[in-house]
Amino acid sequence: MWHYVKLETELTHVYLQEVLPGITQPGDDNNYGSAGVLDVLCLQALSKRIHYGKFVAEAKFQAQPQEYERLIRARDAQAILHLLTDKAVEQRVIERVRLKAATFGQDIVAPSQQPGSSSASSNDSGSNGEGSSDSSDTHLPGLLPPQGLSSKEAAGPRLKVSPDVVAALYERWVMPLTKEVEVQYLLARLG
Ligand SMILES: O=C(O)C(=O)C[C@]1(C(=O)O)C=C[C@@H](O)C=C1
């Protein structure tokens, strides 16, 4: 049945093996509570995005019922995957994700806290505890792997995660998992 289509196990594996290493630095910052809360938020957001593939697949079925029905009856998962794939849309999604990560992932620094500013001190992290503990450090420890930054990114504003890494995660994992949900949904569609 279509509502049994759930890729939680695959998603957890991808999150632990691919997403986390891409957006964090190795090591232990002892922030287990905050990390746990954010892990759950990320997993829920990814799960929702991927499993919305069921609605997308239903719309695609409605648009081409005969084509899909023939492939579903033939149990031809590869042909279904091919029929539902739209490379132009995928390219637009990747570019939008890259732009969003570059825009909303900026680490905003008050002018007075910027390196070279007379009021910036090396150990002043502000009353709310935010900010770099070292004003000469261009990246927040634990948030941005410097090795994940392209030279273009490193020259621009400080970013919490590399837009290229986020775009690659979408291309290699998020969209393929969404398509896997779509295929599984369609295979169960007539049952
Ligand atoms: O928008 C669609 O047509 C989808 O099926 C969604 C999606 C995606 O995951 O973003 C997946 C497959 C398509 O090739 C394009 C995009």
Task: Write up what this structure looks like.
Residues 109-156 are annotated as: Disordered. Residues 37-182 form the Chorismate mutase domain. It is found in: Cytoplasm. This is chorismate mutase. With 191 residues, the protein is mainly α. It has a single domain (2-25, 32-109, 142-188), classed as Orthogonal Bundle (Chorismate Mutase, subunit A), CATH 1.10.590.10. Helices cover 59% and strands 0% of the residues. It contains 8 helices and no strands. The protein starts with 7 loop residues before the first helix and ends with a helix. Mean pLDDT is 84; it is low at 121-147. The chain binds prephenic acid. The site of prephenic acid has 11 residues, from helix 6 and helix 8. Prephenic acid (PRE) binds at residues 56, 84-86, 89-90, 93, 175, 178-179, 182.
Listed once per kind, the bound small molecules are:
prephenic acid
Distance between the termini: 7 Å
Query: Segments where pLDDT lies below 50 for 5+ residues?
Result: 121-147
Q: Name the helicity range.
A: 55-70%
Estimated share of beta-strand residues: under 5%
Number of domains: 1
Order of helices and strands: HHHHHHHH
The shape, in one word, is elongated
SS element count, helices: 8
CATH domain class: Mainly Alpha
State the CATH architecture.
Orthogonal Bundle
Label this structure with key terms.
Chorismate Mutase, subunit A; binds prephenic acid; chorismate mutase; isomerase
